[in-house]
Design brief:
The complex is a heterodimer of chains A (244) and B (314). Chain A has 244 residues and is an alpha/beta fold. Helices cover 38% and strands 28% of the residues of chain A. Chain A has a 6-stranded mixed sheet, with helices on both faces. Chain B has a single domain, classed as ABC transporter involved in vitamin B12 uptake, BtuC, CATH 1.10.3470. Chain B is mostly helical and 314 residues long. The chains are: A alpha/beta (244), B mainly alpha (314). Chains A and B meet through α2, α3 and α4 of A and α6 and α7 of B.
Chain lengths: 244, 314
């Protein structure tokens, strides 16, 4: 399996505060990889750094062999260009276009696609994957429930046909049953659409169960990395994240 | 009285064009800009200088005004459009004042008796208001159609996405800076053209008439009508002009001071924000993504009408 995302020794700071220090990791094509960690560990910062929303202080990030982010000014690509390379981010808190209808949101997700037939086909696929979105397609996104909005955010990201899907806390603030539903859909997307998934989550058990590989982030550093199943058995993880 | 309504029609037309430009900046892309008076000023001066100083045709001044206003928008836009919300608002407010001051220093009394515009030998005289109504509303129509097309184009959709959420827009591959600047430049150019038409009608320009209040009035027009809806903005222009001429219309100029307008605009903005933040007509719907062709849509439209007639479900 080839490496699709390679993060090499990156550091990110907010002023004097270090959010990430010397983080290195990689994601193999076709995998689901999760990153777990507590609040403030730097999980979201890492995702933002990957898509170029946070500048790097040190290190570099490569996607499919091409360097997309680099330390030093103007070292990397801008967010929109990174998105064009095939990385789709489902941002934290969903960030849907609230005043647009579900269908319009999906159209925006396909902004980079010019083939109308392909857009229509992908939209149909999305309505099959998330039937509730099909029912609500003429509704303003504002009126959707949290879980539906999360599904819509994922569907919007998939509209561009990404190679790598980044998910920032897909289960945040949702009912346990809805979270389960979303995770099984993520697995389905990974298997059927052959999309590599890298997700960041506080719900460690669910995230690691669905992942083939996991990383643990504490205070801006990777402290553990192993196969998902192995991490679930790990004493330190069990103590700190699984409440065992 | 007829004369008076014609006057309102003329000014409503000029402000409708300005508001269409402002709508592009504020309504579609969501940038709170307060310098439309500046672009208006640039357009007015372009016509004054080209017609009076250079002795060239009025029609030439229209593209020149659009280009100069657009260029000023571009040069100012590149550094300031990085700012957000209130900061952008203050920066653009400053720009509007700078343009007015430059105009004042250029020529404090402005220009008078500017030659009239002619078209195929016909002279547009200020006396003949009807000819101006036709001229100005022809421009309104053109811009309305253009911006209506724009709103449903790729460019327009990208602008609206930027307004809704910048991070999400970027993550979907939209170059936020590019679309912000494009919308600012477009809006500025349209504002410039409105200035040309104003000068063609009044045949004089004075730097004192391009104050901050003009920018506020244009913003008010957009908010009142409905942000991001070209039709609504034209309706807003009518209402605002009607209100601003209300003292003259009711013959109460002695009772109602001219400053009352400012209070009314302020009140209008507050009331609109509280009661109907989307404006009278609200936001325009997307047409994008409808796979039907134009003829199919027409057929469906009539088919629906028929169904209604037969009492069926529409």
């Amino acid at each position: 399996m080839s490496e699709i995302l390679k993060i090499d020794g990156i550091s990110v700071s907010y002023g004097n505060i270090r959010a990430l220090s010397d983080v290195s990791m990689s994601v193999n094509e076709g995998d689901i990889v999760s990153l777990i960690g507590a609040n403030g560990a730097g999980k979201s910062t890492l995702l933002k750094a990957i898509v170029g929303l946070e500048p790097l202080k040190e290190g570099s990030i490569a996607f499919a062999g091409e360097t997309i982010c680099k330390a030093k000014h103007h070292g990397g690509l801008t967010t929109d260009l990174i998105a064009r390379r095939g990385i789709a981010l489902v941002p934290e808190g969903r960030r849907v276009f609230a005043d647009m209808t579900v269908e319009e949101n999906l159209d925006m997700g396909a902004f980079m696609v010019s083939d109308q037939a392909l857009i229509a086909k992908r939209k149909n696929d999305m309505f099959e994957l998330f039937p509730i979105l099909g029912k609500r397609k003429k509704q303003k996104t504002r009126s959707l429930s949290g879980g539906e909005q999360q599904m819509m955010a994922i569907a919007r990201a998939l509209m561009s046909g990404p190679r790598l899907l980044l998910l920032d806390e897909p289960g945040l603030g949702l009912a346990p049953l809805v979270v389960q539903n979303i995770f099984s859909t993520i697995k389905l997307i990974n298997e059927e659409n052959k999309v590599t998934v890298f997700l960041v989550e506080q719900n460690a058990r669910l995230a690691l169960k669905s992942s083939s590989f996991g990383y643990v982030l504490e205070n801006g550093r990777i402290v553990l990395q192993d196969k998902g199943e192995a991490l679930l058995q790990n004493e330190r993880v069990q103590k700190a994240y699984l409440g065992a | 009285m007829l004369n008076f309504f014609q006057l309102i029609l003329i000014y409503a037309g000029i402000y409708a064009i300005m508001a269409i430009g402002q709508n592009c900046i504020t309504g579609y892309t969501g940038m709170l800009s307060l310098c439309h008076a500046g672009f208006f000023c640039i357009g007015s001066y372009a016509t004054a200088i080209i017609c009076k100083v250079c002795g060239l045709s009025f029609w030439l001044s229209i593209p020149v005004a659009a280009i100069v206003a657009g260029l000023v928008g571009l040069v100012i836009g590149i550094p300031t459009l990085r700012l957000k919300g209130d900061y952008l608002c203050i920066a653009t407010l400053g720009l509007g004042e700078i343009i007015r001051n430059v105009a004042t220093n250029l020529n404090p009394v402005g220009f008078n008796s500017i030659p009239r515009a002619t078209l195929f030998g016909y002279q547009f005289a200020s006396r003949n208001k009807l000819s101006f109504i036709i001229l100005i509303w022809a421009f309104v129509l053109v811009f309305y159609v253009l911006f209506q097309q724009l709103a449903h184009s790729r460019l327009g959709r990208a602008m609206i996405a930027v307004r809704e959420d910048e991070v999400a827009a970027q993550s979907n591959g939209i170059n936020v800076t590019k679309y912000k600047i494009s919308s600012f430049v477009l809006g500025a150019a349209v504002g410039g053209i409105a200035g040309c038409l104003q000068t063609a009608y009044t045949l004089t320009v004075q730097p004192g008439s391009y104050t901050f209040m003009v920018s506020v009035m244009v913003l008010c027009t957009v908010v009142l009508g409905g942000m991001g809806n070209a039709k609504a903005v034209i309706l807003g222009a009518f209402i605002i002009q009607f209100i601003s001429y209300l003292p003259q219309l009711t013959g109460l100029t002695n009772v109602i001071p001219a400053q009352a307008k400012q209070i009314i605009y302020g009140l209008l903005l507050v009331v609109m924000m509280l009661c109907r933040p989307q404006g009278i007509l609200g936001r325009d719907k997307f047409r994008y993504g409808d796979p039907r062709t134009r003829t199919e849509k027409l057929r469906d439209f009539f088919a629906r009408g028929k169904k209604k007639e037969m009492g069926g479900e529409a």
